[in-house]
């Protein structure tokens, strides 16, 4: 049974989402990399919105934005991230933060939920600009030590500590989770894939989140003249890179399931000229799979392939297993049941259980407190692209379902 569901204000939610979209807007999309000037500006904007909602709002020493409830009893933490990929959509992450804010406001306005404590969080750098995984949520959950922050830098070579200083966040303590405070963590997010839309469903209740590994390869050969170097004497880093990429695609195909994905997302030839045999090259590979043991197996297959192709007389290959791995995670059954019931209440038969193929802050939170996620459809299954979008009615519905679930969780656990 679902009772006394507080009504969220859809217009207010959409207005805030569109206001936040202006920070870093690029056409229909957004570029808001962690700790850039526009990201910092948007964090201050968010603090003001949280204060308007009656929350105790602040930005901590790592850039996480918190809006803490002043109510007593166990709190429910609701959040996601507001940073983006180098070319991002307007909803990836932002949606879940704004759901948290709207739920906190709706609860404060409703007699039956006024005393419920809802904390809102915007975790910094879920998109991994500083190559530490989901930096903000992992730090908060104690999965990253202070030492790990010291060597982190972004692609422009700016260190994380300098970026925090420039943002003015370095003077504030870095918050860590007090698990006693919380009944759990819930996160709303766009699906970022095609399945809800394909099946005409409006809500996805997440069962698990896929594991992910990132590998960075470097190739060292010999730079030479593209006209004069005979083919059989070249130590061409690009040829080796292509050979390894081809072998990876071939070998992985024999060991995967239909939901396994792998991506060669970055390639660089050095120095990069039509007239030069590249002496060095770089390539990244990312592997994701719902089964943690398969992610491990596929990763070691690739590492072995690279070792086989490494040639001490020709092109050398080195592999760096990057720190920004994500461990496959199962969502909490108890919290999930509340979201399922809320979905069935609002859209009977029009929701489904589903795994998440994308990574989320909920992965970090789930290591410490009960955590669960809700998805809404992505138009055309597009995300990490300026075209990312969702119908307004789905955005509003998702928030209402999460609000109903939040009330039912707090009624049970506070
Ligand atoms: C998160 O944005 C991911 O790439 O999974
Ligand atoms: Mn993302
Ligand atoms: Mn996201």
List the helices and strands and how they pair.
Blueprint: H1 10-21, E1 25-26, E2 29-30, H2 37-52, E3 56-59, E4 65-68, E5 75-81, H3 94-109, E6 117-123, H4 135-140, H5 146-150, H6 160-167, E7 182-190, H7 195-199, E8 203-209, E9 211-220, E10 224-225, H8 237-253, E11 261-263, E12 267-270, E13 276-277, E14 280-289, H9 292-309, E15 316-321, E16 329-330, H10 333-346, E17 351-356, H11 362-365, E18 371-376, H12 392-413
Parallel strand pairs: 5-6, 5-7, 7-18, 8-17
Antiparallel strand pairs: 1-2, 3-4, 4-6, 8-16, 8-18, 9-14, 9-15, 10-13, 11-14, 12-14
Bound molecules: glyoxylic acid and manganese (II) ion (2 copies).
In short:
By secondary structure, the protein is an alpha+beta fold.
Q: Keywords for this structure?
A:
alpha+beta; five-stranded antiparallel β-sheet; single chain; binds manganese (II) ion; elongated; 414 residues; nine-stranded mixed β-sheet; binds glyoxylic acid
Please characterize this protein's 3D structure.
The protein is an alpha+beta fold. Helix content is 35%, strand content 22%. It has helices at 10-21, 37-52, 94-109, 135-140, 146-150, 160-167, 195-199, 237-253, 292-309, 333-346, 362-365, 392-413, and strands spanning 25-26, 29-30, 56-59, 65-68, 75-81, 117-123, 182-190, 203-209, 211-220, 224-225, 261-263, 267-270, 276-277, 280-289, 316-321, 329-330, 351-356, 371-376. The strands form 4 sheets. Strands 3, 4, 5, 6, 7, 8, 16, 17 and 18 form a 9-stranded mixed β-sheet that branches. Strands 9, 11, 12, 14 and 15 form a 5-stranded antiparallel β-sheet that branches. A two-stranded antiparallel ribbon has the order 1-2. Helix 1 crosses helix 12 (392-413), helix 8 runs antiparallel to helix 9 (292-309) and helix 10 packs across helix 12 (392-413). The chain starts with 9 loop residues before the first helix and ends with a helix. One manganese (II) ion (MN) binds at residues 85, 92, 127, 384. Glyoxylic acid is lined by residues 127, 358-359.
């Amino acid at each position: 049974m679902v009772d006394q569901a507080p009504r969220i204000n859809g217009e207010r939610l959409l207005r805030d989402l569109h206001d936040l979209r202006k920070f870093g807007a690029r056409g229909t999309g957004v570029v808001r990399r962690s700790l850039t000037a526009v990201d910092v500006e948007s964090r201050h904007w968010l603090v003001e919105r949280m204060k308007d909602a009656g929350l105790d709002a602040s930005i901590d020493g790592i850039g996480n934005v918190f809006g803490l409830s002043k109510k007593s009893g166990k709190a429910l933490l609701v959040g996601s991230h507001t940073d983006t990929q180098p070319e991002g959509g307007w909803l990836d992450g932002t949606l879940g933060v704004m759901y948290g804010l709207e739920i906190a406001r709706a609860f404060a306005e409703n007699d039956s939920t006024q005393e419920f404590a809802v904390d809102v969080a915007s975790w910094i750098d879920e998109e991994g600009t500083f190559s530490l995984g989901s930096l903000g949520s992992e730090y908060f959950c104690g999965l990253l030590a202070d030492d790990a922050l010291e060597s982190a830098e972004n692609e422009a070579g700016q260190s994380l500590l300098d970026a925090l200083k420039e943002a003015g966040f370095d003077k504030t303590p870095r918050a860590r989770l007090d698990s006693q405070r919380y009944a759990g963590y819930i996160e709303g997010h766009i699906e970022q894939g095609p399945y809800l839309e394909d099946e005409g469903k409006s809500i996805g209740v997440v069962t698990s989140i896929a594991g992910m590994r990132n590998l960075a390869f470097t190739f060292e050969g010999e730079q030479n003249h593209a006209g004069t170097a005979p083919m059989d004497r070249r130590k061409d880093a690009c040829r080796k890179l292509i050979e390894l990429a081809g072998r990876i695609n071939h070998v992985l195909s024999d060991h995967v399931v239909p939901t396994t994905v792998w991506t060669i997302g970055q390639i660089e030839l050095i120095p990069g000229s039509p007239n030069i045999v590249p002496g060095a090259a770089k390539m990244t590979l990312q592997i994701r799979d719902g089964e943690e043991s398969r992610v491990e197996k596929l990763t070691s297959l690739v590492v072995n392939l690279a070792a086989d192709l490494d040639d001490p007389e020709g092109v050398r290959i080195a592999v760096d297993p990057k720190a920004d791995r994500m461990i496959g995670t199962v969502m909490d059954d108890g919290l999930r049941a509340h979201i399922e019931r809320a979905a069935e209440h609002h859209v009977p038969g029009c929701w489904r259980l589903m795994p998440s193929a994308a990574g989320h802050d909920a992965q970090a939170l789930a290591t410490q407190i009960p955590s669960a996620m809700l998805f809404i459809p992505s138009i055309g299954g597009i995300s990490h692209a300026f075209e990312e979008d969702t119908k307004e009615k789905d955005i509003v519905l998702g928030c209402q379902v999460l609000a109903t679930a939040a009330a039912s969780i707090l009624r049970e656990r506070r």
